[in-house]
UniProtKB/TrEMBL annotation:
InterPro entries referenced in this protein's UniProt entry, alphabetically: F-box-assoc_dom_typ1, F-box-assoc_interact_dom, F-box-like_dom_sf, F-box_dom, Gal_Oxase/kelch_b-propeller, SCF_F-box_component
Record-linked SMART domains: FBOX (SM00256)
SUPFAM superfamilies reported in the protein's UniProt record: F-box domain (SSF81383), Galactose oxidase, central domain (SSF50965)
Residue ranges constituting the F-box domain according to the UniProt record: 2-47
Protein name according to UniProt: F-box domain-containing protein
Organism classification: Eukaryota, Viridiplantae, Streptophyta, Embryophyta, Tracheophyta
Source species of the chain: Brassica campestris (Field mustard)
Domain of life: Eukaryota
């Protein structure tokens, strides 16, 4: 007599779940009721490391899932990098301005609305968060969690007002607490810095900031890092970047994370086409040390990176951005490997010029959002 799926030994089921690729989650949940329940208390595909990039991106204000084989596929004898991109129909009624990833959750900033959306793609749970205004382009977000005495995670959202983009007065720093479902105003001081953007890592957010100081009779600016500690709800000490970070010598600086364990930074110089990637060998709210990961001469020289992802094991980086040619803006993505090997990724080309093509790598999570499921 054949054994039913629900009759398999528990250890065997756990092993099967760990080997099923995350992209087959929907099919697995349809196999039997027991497996559907188990997939919501265990992470599927823990041991799946087939060199596939899984992530989310915003295209023309639509949130899309993205799957890309980083080893490429063969098409008529040619090796091509052609991602599978699908619109997330669960969120089809919302126009997404930006998307951020932390602890297996996605924060979606909704265009022209006074609401934020938090989504757990793995558990298919939603949580809407009301804000006091619609100034989406005037805010930056930091994502993390605080730890209480029981070491439980209390997820939080830090909202930072960019005064250069807002004509209306308002609090510079606000924080949303998931446990209390409420916003509060923070009285914190980032020093003589203008915060630019941030990346979530180990429950905190590391912000890229522009620091201005007076050297003699000359005003100089440089890029530094500031960590916001979500447990203490304050900024840490300024952290120095591993390269000459004078603002007037830098074309762009972009932050990313590696498996929620390390911080990564990419920088491009203003006077040449060199692109460098650095990864932290140590990262704490008040200390960081770095090693260089990749260095490449980028073509076209006018290419500006908007986001990137690093696969440390395969020694490669996936970057997205744009370059200008005459009056036109072209969105592009590339895979960059050792020895300066640059390979083009075939992306859609009909995006609106002002809409960023931003990658956000994804790792599943069992964090419960509790409402708006």
């Amino acid at each position: 007599m054949a054994m039913a799926m629900s009759d398999l030994p528990g250890e065997l089921v756990t092993e099967i779940l760990s080997r099923v690729p995350l992209t087959y989650l929907r099919a697995l949940r349809c196999t039997c009721k027991t497996w559907e329940v188990l997939s919501k208390t265990h992470i599927v595909g823990k041991t799946d490391s087939d060199g596939t990039f899984l992530g989310f991106m915003v295209i023309d204000y639509n949130l899309c899932s993205m799957k890309l084989d980083l080893q490429g596929t063969h098409d008529n004898g040619n090796l091509v990098y052609r991602p599978s991109i699908e619109r997330v129909w669960l969120l089809e009624q919302a126009e997404i301005w930006e998307v951020f990833h932390w602890d297996g959750l996605l924060l979606c900033v909704i265009k022209d609305e006074s609401r934020l959306l938090v989504w757990n793609p793995y558990l298919r749970q939603l949580r809407w968060i009301q804000t006091r205004d619609k100034l989406h382009s005037a805010y930056m977000y930091g994502l993390g969690y605080g730890n209480n005495n029981n070491n439980d995670r209390n997820h939080k959202i830090l909202r930072v007002l960019d005064v250069t983009k807002s004509s209306e007065p308002g609090p510079l720093f606000e924080i949303y607490d998931f446990n209390s479902s409420s916003w509060g105003v923070l009285d914190v001081d980032p020093g003589n810095c203008v915060i630019k953007s941030g990346v979530s890592l180990k429950g905190n957010t590391y912000f890229l900031a522009k620091e201005t100081c007076l050297e003699g009779f000359v005003v100089e600016s440089q890029y530094i890092l500031l960590c916001f500690d979500f447990t203490a709800e304050r900024f840490g000490q300024r952290l120095i970047l591993p390269f000459g970070a004078g603002v007037r010598f830098i074309k762009t600086v972009v932050l990313s994370s590696v498996r929620d364990e390390q911080l990564a930074v990419l920088h491009q110089s203003e006077d040449n086409n060199v692109m460098e990637f650095w990864i932290t060998s140590k990262i704490e709210p008040n200390a960081a040390s770095w090693t260089r990961f990749l260095r490449v001469e980028m073509t076209p020289q006018s290419f500006v990176t908007e986001s990137f992802f690093i696969d440390e094991e395969k020694k490669l980086a996936l970057v997205s951005g744009f370059f200008k040619l005459f009056r036109h803006i072209y969105k592009r993505a590339y895979i960059i490997r050792e020895q300066g090997c640059i390979e083009s990724v075939e992306m859609r080309k009909d995006r609106e010029p002002g809409n960023k093509l931003v990658f956000s790598s994804y790792a599943p999570s069992l964090v419960q959002l509790q409402i708006n499921r």
